[in-house]
Design goal:
The complex is a heterodimer. By secondary structure, chain A is of the alpha+beta class. Chain A has four helices and seven strands. In chain A, helix 1 runs antiparallel to helix 2. The longest helix of chain A has 28 residues. Chain A is elongated. Chain B is α+β, with helices and mostly antiparallel strands. Chain B contains 14 helices and 22 strands. In chain B, a hairpin with an 8-residue loop joins strand 21 and strand 22. The two termini of chain B are 32 Å apart. Classes of the chains: A alpha+beta, B alpha+beta. At the A-B interface, strand 4 of A face strand 20, helix 13, strand 21 and helix 14 of B. Strand 4 of chain A pairs antiparallel with strand 20 of chain B, so a sheet runs across the interface.
Chain lengths: 160, 502
């Protein structure tokens, strides 16, 4: 086994609508980078700037190609006493946070995600590096999940 | 004005030491006085030696020349009265109280400020005595709370009151039902001041003996061979090369400020560390620092989020180590090297480190903990009880893969890292916030992964790189489960609640 995998985890995947949201965001970036690159090449004749922007455009294209897989790689599981979270394809990451460590839960909505009815849930602990942010939850699901997390955290409260 | 120290915890509002405004503004006061004197110098000279008096253009000349002396004195008097009045009012309005649950401070004249600290959330209590305050027999009590600059300051209190208060607050916070000890009766005022000034722990009760003795030679040696000195040497070598190559001496002028910087760094670190002491009390570890201005901090049990023992390269021949900690509170009072108060032992040998670790992490102490600490610090790796990295990790960590190791003890997680800059990290199980495993493309090709233990923010970032994939996944499960059970079983926020009333 080369990849890190948790064999007994049953992941709850995020909404496939997140693919559209991320694609739209990436496409906007692509258009801006490509447009600026074209302007630098044909209007300003600044070669280095055009090359830099061309590189950015290629990165944006690769990014777009990877968006669907990356969204499908995001998952979480509400276990008995902790929240398990995973994301990433090339850079894979698993985090386990005990519910009792919760300091607060944040729900955020970006402009594109709001149009699609999606929310992002952030689980904040006393450690800044944990970084558990679950994107692509349907607004109602996010609120249910938040209330659930708050109630389990209350029953399993631990100090710092 | 000072009420008996034992009455400070009666839940009523109390005031601070009457010299507080002077001590808080002490430096500014002296500075202003100095400026005024230096401006008046010519004039004073003129008064006593009239022949040397010169007609300058400064305001003092103008006032004297035009006969406005009375008016000027009246203005000065008025300003002084307003200042003293302001200080007095702000002192009157600055009150605090301690109840069974909280410490509360009210301050401010125009903008009222009210800060409350829950006793069971106290992260540490610090008694700070700047030089000027020591002369007045006053001390500052700092009650640390989790969060950035969230501490609560009682500046200043009578030294004895501060000591008694610290003890009482810790007793209330610990959940112990023992009665407060009666404060010792004092001799004459002068005797008391002298005694307070010389006592390193300035305790009402007999101070516990420090378990580590700071040797002058070791302190000097550790500073000369420390990382700062390596940087200084590199800079000097660079400057000499530059001069040799270009023949340009101008760089010496550029080097001057950094020489002053290094000098003050060494002097500060030296004077801070000189009267270092560390000892165990029933209410936590007590660490004292400082020669002229002293600080004395008490960390109740369970307030240390991780401990790292590390060794700069040039300390290795001497077997010296440094101990640092992660804490939830980020106090404004600075530590030995002007870092935040995270260094618990500036330098010590293996025996000192073992004693300090046993004091700070009693849950680590077991039948074989001493040999475990020694293996953690000095072992070159191999089959010694730690979960080691496989041989293929040498592709990424050619020097340290052998030492890279993980160990789960009954009370904590232990990480061993570094082939050149050796370090040994302990994370108490109940303090772990979360755990993660990560894997990038290079690690995947070698069937390796990184393990991260997340604790509160601090100088230590406990992580172990290049672990075998299967081991990493297994450790992830073990650590996550242990963190849950330890977090729920933990009672250290009321660390003496289990004790019977005395």
């Amino acid at each position: 086994m080369r990849r890190i995998e948790l064999p007994d985890a049953q992941w709850t995947r995020v909404s496939p609508k997140l693919i559209a949201v991320d694609l739209l965001g990436a496409a906007i970036f692509l258009v801006i980078a490509a447009g600026a690159g074209a302007a630098a090449w044909w209007l300003l004749h600044v070669l280095w700037l055009a090359i830099a922007l061309a590189v950015l455009t290629v990165i944006a294209l690769v990014n777009i190609a990877l968006v669907p897989r990356r969204v499908r790689a995001i998952g979480y599981q509400l276990r008995e006493d902790d929240l398990l979270f995973t994301r990433g394809i090339m850079w894979k990451r698993f985090v386990a946070v005990p519910y009792g460590r919760m300091q607060l839960v944040d729900i955020q909505r970006g402009p594109i995600a709001r149009g699609m009815g999606l929310s992002e849930l952030k689980f904040v602990t006393a450690a800044a590096s944990a970084g558990v942010t679950i994107p692509g939850l349907l607004a109602a699901d996010a609120e249910t999940l938040r209330d659930h997390l708050v109630s389990v955290a209350e029953s399993r409260r631990a100090g710092l | 004005m000072n009420p008996g120290a034992d009455q400070l915890i009666d839940g009523e509002w109390h005031r601070l030491h009457p010299a507080s405004p002077l001590l808080k503004g002490g430096i500014a006061f002296v500075a202003i006085f100095g400026v005024v004197v230096s401006n008046l110098r010519e004039q004073l000279l003129g008064v006593f030696v009239p022949r040397l008096a010169q007609r300058g253009g400064d305001p003092v000349d103008y006032i004297v020349g035009h006969g406005y002396i009375i008016q000027a004195l009246l203005v000065i008097l008025a300003v002084l009265l307003v200042l003293i009045g302001g200080f007095y009012v702000s002192w009157r309005m600055h009150t605090f109280r301690i109840t069974d649950e909280v410490v509360e401070v009210r301050s401010g004249v125009f903008i009222r400020n009210n800060r409350k600290a829950r006793l069971d959330r106290i992260q540490g209590i610090n008694i700070v005595r700047p030089l000027l305050a020591r002369v007045f027999g006053a001390a500052k009590l700092e009650i640390d709370q989790a969060g950035h600059d969230a501490s609560l300051h009682l500046s200043y209190l009578d030294t004895r009151a501060a000591d008694q208060l610290r003890k009482d607050i810790l007793r209330l916070a610990s959940g112990s039902r023992a009665a407060s000890a009666a404060p010792a009766t004092a001799g004459s005022l002068l005797d008391r001041r002298v005694e307070e000034f010389t006592a390193p722990h300035h305790d009402v009760d007999a101070a516990p003996e420090s378990i580590v003795k700071m040797h002058l030679g070791r302190l000097l040696g550790s500073m000369i061979l420390g990382t700062g000195s390596v940087i200084a040497l590199l800079l000097i070598a660079g400057a000499i090369t530059w001069i040799a190559v270009t023949g340009d001496l101008f760089i010496l002028f550029l080097a001057f400020p950094s020489v002053i910087g290094f000098g003050s760094y060494y002097v500060r670190r030296f004077t801070r560390s000189l009267r270092y002491s560390i000892s165990g009390t029933p209410d936590g570890v007590r660490v004292g620092w400082g020669l002229l201005s002293t600080t004395n901090e008490t960390l109740p049990p369970g307030r240390i989020h991780s401990v790292e023992v590390s060794q700069p390269l040039f300390w290795r021949p001497f077997g010296w180590w440094e101990v640092r900690v992660n804490r939830a509170a980020h106090s404004r009072t600075r530590g030995a090297d002007n870092q935040a108060n995270t260094t618990l032992l500036p330098v010590g040998n293996l025996a000192d480190v073992t004693k300090v670790l046993e004091l700070m992490l009693p849950e680590l102490v077991g039948a074989e903990s001493v040999s475990m600490i020694e293996r953690g610090l000095r072992s070159r790796g191999g089959d010694d009880g730690f979960e080691n990295s496989p041989l293929r990790a040498a592709w990424l960590r050619p020097l340290s893969w052998r030492r890279n190791g993980f160990l789960v003890t009954p009370g904590s997680f232990v990480l061993r890292r570094g082939g050149i800059w050796r370090s040994f990290t302990v994370v108490p199980k109940p303090r772990l916030q979360s755990v993660a495993i990560e894997q990038g493309p290079a690690l995947r090709m070698l069937r390796l992964a990184d393990l991260h233990l997340h604790t509160v923010h601090g100088p230590i970032r406990p992580h172990l790189d290049v672990v075998d994939v299967d081991v990493a996944v297994r450790l992830f499960g073990v650590v996550a489960a242990a963190a849950v059970t330890a977090g729920q079983a933990d009672t250290s926020h009321r660390w003496r609640a289990g004790e019977a009333a005395v």
